[in-house]
Amino acid sequence: MSVRTFESGPSPISPNQSMISDFDFGDTALADDIQQQLGQTEHAIVRELSCGEPALEEPMMHLTTSGGKRFRPLLALLSSQFGPRPGCSAVIDAAAAVELVHMASLYHDDVMDEATMRRGVESVNLRWNNSVAILAGDYMLVRAWSVLTRSQLDPVLKVSALTTLSESATALVTGQLRETVQSREGIIEPEQYLQTVTEKTASLLSIAAWLGAAYSGADETVAKTLSAIGEAIGIVFQISDDIIDVAAPSDRSGKSRCTDLREGVATLPVIYALRDGAATTRLRELVSRPITDDNEVEEAVQLIQSSSAFAESRAMMERYAALAHSHLATLQPGVARQAIGNLIDFTLARSN
Ligand code: FPP
Ligand code: MG
């Protein structure tokens, strides 16, 4: 069954790109609990960003209140169902912290991509400028650690959480840099792509799941299993994002269409299309540099669409979704396990 949107919950924001309104939790009581906890997470995020300095607050609130899927908080909250304190205040802090790191990375990513649109509104780099977007992202990043530092937790667990979040943010930066360098250097293999997306995307989903479970007091084995599920979901998520970049119109994605393609980023559909004989020569010519001409962008899209790229990318997503399901099968059966199973399938179906 579907559940209410954020608008009816106690949330200070009205996300216009939220996935929650479409997501089937499979259980009404669980859906209501998570909905309420997502509202608390929004309050925690807004609290952290309320610095009283309009020059910073306005650009930070611009995207925060424009929506977003809140995928990472959702995974943290669902994972917390496997411990004795689901949705406790420390779990809410963890959900807020991972979303803050994620938003910080998007503010920086939009500068790097020269993006014009995010979450269905003007990107911060366009509406303000690159410096404001970078500094707003910096502020968000620092607040993520601040939330976790103030959490009411056992000190040993707190140090472990802070260390793990540091490692995850380090992986994000490394993955993003790897993507930038690889795109500049030219053709890459699917294995290199997988390493990059494991770092730049899956690492944060992995820690979202681990933090949610650990902060609610789940066993370490269970937390590690959820972390592995988060990582596999993260890879499925990024591949679907890369398909959406090429295949979906802006009004569906809420982002500028074909940003990766225009910037010459080696996403999985492009990598596979370049290995498919029919598309190779002309596509290689087009993607060997940033594409500025709209006709050339459309030509590249056509070449990718007429190749085996989407089918092969989907097959890769299915492999990681199956991996996530196989980890999930080892956890305690119940409504939370069912909901995470639905989340895996939901992520897989995003780019259909
Ligand atoms: C979005 O991917 C971007 C990321 C997943 C990571 C970006 C990381 C950085 C900019 C490094 C800085 C990191 C921190 C922690 C501040 P995408 O470009 O494929 O997706 P999009 O279509 O949403 O832009
Ligand atoms: Mg981007």
From TrEMBL:
<dbReference type="GO" id="GO:0046872">
    <property type="term" value="F:metal ion binding"/>
</dbReference>
<dbReference type="InterPro" id="IPR008949">
    <property type="entry name" value="Isoprenoid_synthase_dom_sf"/>
</dbReference>
<comment type="similarity">
    <text>Belongs to the FPP/GGPP synthase family.</text>
</comment>
<dbReference type="InterPro" id="IPR033749">
    <property type="entry name" value="Polyprenyl_synt_CS"/>
</dbReference>
<protein>
    <submittedName>
        <fullName>Polyprenyl synthetase family protein</fullName>
    </submittedName>
</protein>
<comment type="pathway">
    <text>Isoprenoid biosynthesis.</text>
</comment>
<dbReference type="GO" id="GO:0004659">
    <property type="term" value="F:prenyltransferase activity"/>
</dbReference>
<keyword id="KW-0479">Metal-binding</keyword>
<keyword id="KW-0460">Magnesium</keyword>
<dbReference type="InterPro" id="IPR000092">
    <property type="entry name" value="Polyprenyl_synt"/>
</dbReference>
<dbReference type="GO" id="GO:0008299">
    <property type="term" value="P:isoprenoid biosynthetic process"/>
</dbReference>
<dbReference type="Pfam" id="PF00348">
    <property type="entry name" value="polyprenyl_synt"/>
</dbReference>
<keyword id="KW-0808">Transferase</keyword>
